From TrEMBL:
The keyword rRNA processing does not apply. Signal peptide: none annotated. Its EC number is 1.1.1.83. It holds the Pfam family Iso_dh. GO terms for molecular function: D-malate dehydrogenase (decarboxylating) (NAD+) activity; magnesium ion binding; NAD binding. This is D-malate dehydrogenase (decarboxylating). Keywords: Manganese, Metal-binding, NAD, Oxidoreductase. InterPro entries: ICDH/IPMDH (IPR050501), IsoCit/isopropylmalate_DH_CS (IPR019818), IsoPropMal-DH-like_dom (IPR024084), TTC_DH (IPR011829). Belongs to the isocitrate and isopropylmalate dehydrogenases family. Residues 6-351 form the Isopropylmalate dehydrogenase-like domain. NCBIfam families: PRK03437.1, PRK08194.1, TTC. It comes from Neobacillus piezotolerans. It catalyses: (R)-malate + NAD(+) = pyruvate + CO2 + NADH. Its cofactor is Mg(2+); Mn(2+).
Length: 359
């Protein structure tokens, strides 16, 4: 039976363009391996370059154009001279919010062939998932600046935690820990000793949703201690759930302990599947290496694997991940960030060869 998927393809700026091309090549290789998989792409040139020509990151009906696709595959947006808040509020945040991608999912898994930046025991078991609340929390635009230029100069910003928003992210996290977790363990980040309204609220709902998943062992850990444990005992985690800001910080830390920006993938998931989810590498446009053909496409290729998983193509996602790890392990086609000499496309070609070899 043929399975058709339509993907909104947004390469964006800088190395986003280079790495996303490799992800697409890998998806094409999977389609030739499995004749039933048919992927159609619609390409969008929305980017900072588009912004410089048009004054907006995407057209007014941009979200409508994306709505009907099965997934959104995004490279990176960013360009020197264009402020980050323009690309963020002009493209990424509207997509995440409008399409209710309230789960930001980032695997923290040490791939075979990657030399761990941390030394220590048990790193072969380093494989967990961080879920960041992606729609509310500390990232609200509620607040303001007062008495500027006086002795009383001050700024205030509010955080918003709603029952609806907190319950849905926690339920997703508990359900994941219960169904897929190797250790059936959930760690929730908090700071209820210092932040005494929103964090106790968050903790209360952690306990409440935990009662729906009694098989999951739960710990509620202060964010400061949790950050330290990411470094001292990362192999002890299974599913970690955190608010928008805490999750933002933890996920970058997670990316660092499994080998850095060239490796780390992320998914913005709408679990109900009533809107498309979006898959993007953690790294940005990296203007310093853009156009040089040396960006590591591992993160982008892993993102394509996460996309296949989300679409229910579990076997092909597994073939992709196995092929990717074989190339990393063999080490002959590594990009310079991993100590190799290969170009972005040589790495991508090698992954495709491994995939086609499984036919
Ligand atoms: P942006 O403004 O779009 O976020 P940035 O300058 O912050 O871009 P990042 O992409 O966040 O750049 O990455 C920081 C640095 O890490 C880059 O300048 C680059 O040297 C390195 N880097 C990031 N991604 C990769 C990759 N895929 N392969 C190799 N090096 C990378
Ligand atoms: Mg950056």
């Amino acid at each position: 039976m043929t399975r058709h998927y339509s993907i909104a393809f947004i390469p964006g700026d800088g190395i986003g363009v280079d790495v996303l091309g490799e992800g697409r090549k890998v998806l094409d290789a999977l389609s030739s391996l499995d004749g039933g998989l048919k992927i159609g792409y619609q390409e969008f040139d929305w980017s900072c370059e588009y912004y410089m020509n048009n004054g907006v990151m995407m057209p007014e009906n941009g979200l409508d154009q994306l709505k009907g696709h099965d997934s959104i595959y995004l490279g990176a947006v960013g360009y020197p001279g264009v402020p980050d808040h323009v690309s963020l509020w002009g493209l990424l945040l509207p997509i995440r919010r409008q399409f209710q991608q309230y789960i930001n999912l980032r695997p923290v898994k040490l791939l075979r062939g990657i030399k761990p930046p941390l030394a220590g025991k048990g790193l072969e078991d380093l494989d967990f998932i961080v879920i960041r609340e992606n729609n509310e929390g500390e990232y609200s635009s509620i607040g303001g600046r007062m008495y500027e230029g006086t002795e009383m100069d001050m700024a205030i910003q509010s955080a918003v935690f709603t029952r609806h928003g907190v319950e849905r992210v926690l339920r997703y996290a508990f359900s994941l820990a219960s169904s897929k977790g190797k250790r059936k363990k959930l760690t929730a980040a908090t700071k209820s000793n210092g932040i005494n309204h929103t964090m106790p609220f968050w903790d209360e709902y952690v306990r409440k949703i935990n009662s729906e998943y009694p098989d999951v062992a739960t710990e509620i850990t202060h964010i400061d201690a949790l950050a330290a444990f990411f470094v001292t005992k990362p192999e002890s985690f299974d599913v970690v759930v955190a608010s928008n800001l805490f999750g933002d910080i933890l996920t970058d830390l997670g990316a660092a302990i499994v080998g850095g920006l060239g490796i780390a993938p992320s998914a913005n998931i709408n679990p109900e599947k009533n809107f498309p989810s979006m898959f993007e590498p953690v790294h940005g446009s990296a203007p310093d290496i853009a156009g040089k053909g040396i960006a590591n496409p591992t993160a982008a290729i892993w993102c394509a694997g996460m996309m296949l998983d989300h679409l229910g193509e579990y076997e092909l996602a597994a073939v992709l991940m196995e092929s990717l790890q074989q190339v990393l392990e063999e080490g002959a086609a590594l990009t310079p960030d991993l100590g190799g000499k290969a170009s972005t496309w040589e790495f991508g070609d090698e992954v495709c060869r491994k995939i086609l070899g499984k036919g």
